[in-house]
Write a structure and sequence with these properties.
Layout (H helix, E strand, L loop, with lengths): L1 H33 L16 E9 L3 E2 L4 E5 L5 E4 L5 E6 L3 E7 L9 E2 L7 E5 L4 E9 L10 E2 L6 E2 L4 H5 L2 H7 L13 H30 L6 H18 L4 H29 L4 H23 L13 E4 L2 E4 H23 L1 H11 L1 H6 L4 H27 L6 H16 L4 H17 L11 H13 L13
Parallel strand pairs: 1-9
Antiparallel strand pairs: 1-2, 1-5, 3-4, 3-6, 6-8, 7-9, 10-11, 12-13
Helix pairs in contact: 4-8, 4-11, 4-12, 4-13, 5-6, 5-7, 5-11, 5-12, 6-11, 8-9, 8-11, 9-11, 12-13, 12-14
Length: about 475
């Protein structure tokens, strides 16, 4: 009888579990069925057959404008859209080209007017697989219309320099800003050739930052997780110099590089050199860099907010070079990167300082025994590495059209992937690895969504660690 009762109880439990599972599946199916009702308010996701036009309507100093009617005209039938509670509207387009965005002034919030009525309607150029955007600013009741507007990015957004921060606060604009204009296949270009060019440009600029991190690792054995924040510093200093102090861009680049060098000297002099003298291990120092990274990210967020910061407001003219297009700004950035990388290579190979650096990297104890001042070499490496990171931060901010408080953190994985691929401690390996990573990141958008292009670097990192842990130019070391 007891066995029968236990069996009945077991059957009842199984039936109850089956009923609960059925109820959960029913609830999930309800959610799945109801889900598409919210698709109209979700941001558009670009792919090979879709371009996204994101429009934000805002009143600077007040907030977003909801319920504003928009008309998008171009290829095919006109599309009607209405801004949501965040003042945003996202329109999916299936053909590249020029589209006209018209704001229905009758739907503007009571008392508000367009800040620049002459810019309504406005023309925005879109490309398949990319996102374009426009930011429309309104004036509060009682303000005078007709203020001059200045374009803020290649996507066609408009905003005055004083309102650049408010304009850049749009989430979609932030996503667009981190996609370079070089990667967009405009009419008259070959998409694959354009992506190859974009990957090469991105890889060269990334090499500046990756080289600095690899130099620090080579001389100290430290993986600096705060290196990304040195990249962010460069972009933020350039933003302040150009947008706040109204300095020329070339001077902003110099100041940003100098600021990075100063911070690198400070960190080594007052943080890492005392840790080394106390005999603190590499693992503990690495944990310190993680804490330092979190502290710097929080500081950037506190002082600069979470809104993207465009370093420049002007649109750089793009030039046609055969099947590809490139902006004059990107050409200058590539020229600076090539010259700096060549200069670093010359210093490491041909100068006394470079030979001392390579000696410390190979064997610090033996270098010290031959009379090389190891701490002096490490201090110079920190200064140079931080300066390279900040310079790379400025050029990458110009390439990606924006910087933000976590700008360097998002690129840190790419830098580590480049260093691992090229070979830990190998300066030339870091450059080669960065070029490969840049090409992989841009070319991956052929098969992956644009938002997942950085994930391809993680795949490369895992494969390299599995197949060739020492990297392309690294040396295999015996353990144990």
């Amino acid at each position: 009888m007891r066995a029968v009762a236990c069996r009945d109880r077991s059957v009842a439990l199984r039936r109850g579990a089956a009923g609960l599972l059925l109820a959960l599946l029913t609830a999930l199916s309800t959610l799945v069925v109801v889900g598409p009702a919210h698709a109209a308010t979700a941001p558009c996701s670009p792919d090979d057959a879709t371009a996204c036009l994101n429009v934000t309507v805002t009143v600077p100093g007040t907030g977003p404008a909801a319920g504003v009617g928009l008309t998008v005209e171009g290829e095919g039938e006109p599309v009607q859209a209405t801004t949501d509670d965040a003042g945003k509207a996202s329109v999916a387009l299936t053909a590249a080209g020029d589209y006209t965005v018209t704001v229905d002034e009758a739907t503007l919030p009571a008392g508000t007017t367009l800040k620049d009525p002459a810019a309504n309607p406005a023309t925005v150029t879109v490309a398949l697989g990319r996102a374009a955007g426009r930011i429309v600013q309104l004036l509060p009741p009682g303000a005078e219309a007709g203020a001059e507007a200045t374009p803020t990015d290649d996507a066609g957004a408009t905003a005055t320099p004083e309102d650049a921060d408010a304009a850049a606060g749009d989430a979609e604009a932030g996503a667009e800003a981190e996609s370079s204009a070089e990667a967009s296949a405009a009419p008259g270009t070959n998409r694959y050739a354009q992506l190859l060019l974009a990957g090469t440009v991105f890889g060269l600029l990334l090499a500046l930052a990756a080289l600095g991190a690899n130099l620090i690792y080579g001389t100290t054995g430290l993986s600096n997780f705060a290196h990304g924040e040195l990249v962010t510093l460069g972009g933020m200093v350039a933003f302040l110099a150009v947008q706040r102090a109204h300095l020329p861009l070339w001077l902003a680049i110099v100041l940003a590089t100098a600021a990075g060098a100063l911070l690198g000297w400070f960190l080594n002099r007052f943080l890492f050199r005392p840790l080394r003298r106390r005999g603190v291990g590499i693992t503990q120092q690495m944990i310190v860099t993680i804490g330092l990274s979190l502290a710097l990210v929080s500081a950037y967020l506190f002082f600069f907010s979470a809104q993207p910061k465009p370093v420049v407001s002007a649109i750089s003219q793009r030039m046609q070079l055969g099947p590809v297009q490139i902006s004059a700004q990107s050409l200058v950035s590539v020229g600076i990167a090539v010259v700096v990388l060549a200069l670093v290579a010359f210093v490491l190979a041909r100068t006394r300082m470079g030979r001392a650096t390579r000696a410390v990297s190979d064997n610090p104890a033996l270098a010290a025994a031959t009379g090389i001042r190891v701490e002096s070499v490490i201090s110079r490496v920190w200064v140079v590495s931080a300066a390279l990171a900040s310079l790379g931060g400025v050029l990458l901010s110009l390439y990606l059209n924006t910087t933000r408080f976590n700008f360097g953190s998002t690129l840190l994985l790419l830098m580590f992937a480049a260093i691992t691929l090229g070979g830990l401690g190998s300066p030339l390996g870091a450059v080669i690895g960065a070029l490969v990573i840049g090409l992989v990141v841009e070319l991956s958008t052929i098969v992956l969504p644009n938002d997942m292009r950085y994930a391809s670097a993680l795949v490369i990192l895992i494969l390299v660690l599995l197949v060739r842990p020492q990297g392309i130019l690294g040396r295999a070391e015996r353990i144990g």
